[in-house]
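PROTEIN DATA CARD
Card holder: N-acylneuraminate cytidylyltransferase
Chain length: 71
Origin: Poecilia mexicana
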Amino acid sequence: MATRKRGIPQGNAISEEAESPKKLRTRHVAALILARGGSKGIPLKNIKPLAGVPLVGWVLRAAIDSGEFDR
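Structure generated from the sequence above:
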Protein backbone atom coordinates (compact mmCIF):
# COMPACT_ATOMS: atom_id res chain seq x y z
CA MET A 1 0.00 0.00 0.00
CA ALA A 2 1.35 3.43 -0.89
CA THR A 3 2.04 5.85 1.92
CA ARG A 4 0.49 9.29 1.99
CA LYS A 5 1.06 12.48 3.92
CA ARG A 6 -1.15 13.09 6.91
CA GLY A 7 -4.28 15.13 6.15
CA ILE A 8 -4.00 15.00 2.36
CA PRO A 9 -6.45 12.51 0.81
CA GLN A 10 -5.35 10.75 -2.36
CA GLY A 11 -7.64 10.76 -5.36
CA ASN A 12 -11.31 10.76 -4.39
CA ALA A 13 -10.72 9.21 -0.98
CA ILE A 14 -12.77 10.80 1.80
CA SER A 15 -11.73 10.26 5.38
CA GLU A 16 -14.19 8.79 7.87
CA GLU A 17 -14.09 12.01 9.87
CA ALA A 18 -15.46 14.04 6.95
CA GLU A 19 -18.38 11.63 6.48
CA SER A 20 -19.65 11.92 10.05
CA PRO A 21 -22.02 14.89 10.53
CA LYS A 22 -21.13 15.07 14.24
CA LYS A 23 -17.50 15.83 13.43
CA LEU A 24 -18.29 18.33 10.69
CA ARG A 25 -16.84 21.74 11.52
CA THR A 26 -17.92 25.07 10.13
CA ARG A 27 -15.19 27.36 8.96
CA HIS A 28 -14.98 30.85 10.41
CA VAL A 29 -13.15 33.64 8.65
CA ALA A 30 -12.15 36.80 10.50
CA ALA A 31 -10.79 40.04 9.08
CA LEU A 32 -7.90 41.91 10.64
CA ILE A 33 -7.73 45.52 9.50
CA LEU A 34 -4.59 47.37 10.50
CA ALA A 35 -4.90 51.14 10.81
CA ARG A 36 -1.82 53.00 11.99
CA GLY A 37 -2.38 56.37 13.57
CA GLY A 38 1.10 57.74 12.93
CA SER A 39 1.67 59.48 9.62
CA LYS A 40 4.09 62.26 8.70
CA GLY A 41 2.08 63.51 5.73
CA ILE A 42 -1.45 63.54 7.17
CA PRO A 43 -1.56 62.94 10.93
CA LEU A 44 -4.44 60.68 12.08
CA LYS A 45 -5.52 60.20 8.46
CA ASN A 46 -7.52 57.06 9.31
CA ILE A 47 -10.10 59.08 11.23
CA LYS A 48 -10.22 62.04 8.83
CA PRO A 49 -13.54 62.20 6.96
CA LEU A 50 -13.57 61.40 3.27
CA ALA A 51 -16.97 62.15 1.71
CA GLY A 52 -18.42 62.29 5.23
CA VAL A 53 -17.05 58.87 6.32
CA PRO A 54 -13.73 58.29 8.11
CA LEU A 55 -11.10 56.66 5.88
CA VAL A 56 -11.06 53.48 7.99
CA GLY A 57 -14.85 53.36 7.66
CA TRP A 58 -14.53 52.81 3.91
CA VAL A 59 -12.26 49.83 4.53
CA LEU A 60 -14.63 48.36 7.13
CA ARG A 61 -17.63 48.83 4.86
CA ALA A 62 -15.84 47.13 1.95
CA ALA A 63 -14.91 44.15 4.15
CA ILE A 64 -18.49 43.77 5.44
CA ASP A 65 -20.02 44.16 1.98
CA SER A 66 -17.70 41.50 0.53
CA GLY A 67 -19.55 38.83 2.52
CA GLU A 68 -16.32 36.88 3.02
CA PHE A 69 -16.00 37.47 6.76
CA ASP A 70 -18.27 36.47 9.62
CA ARG A 71 -16.41 38.31 12.38
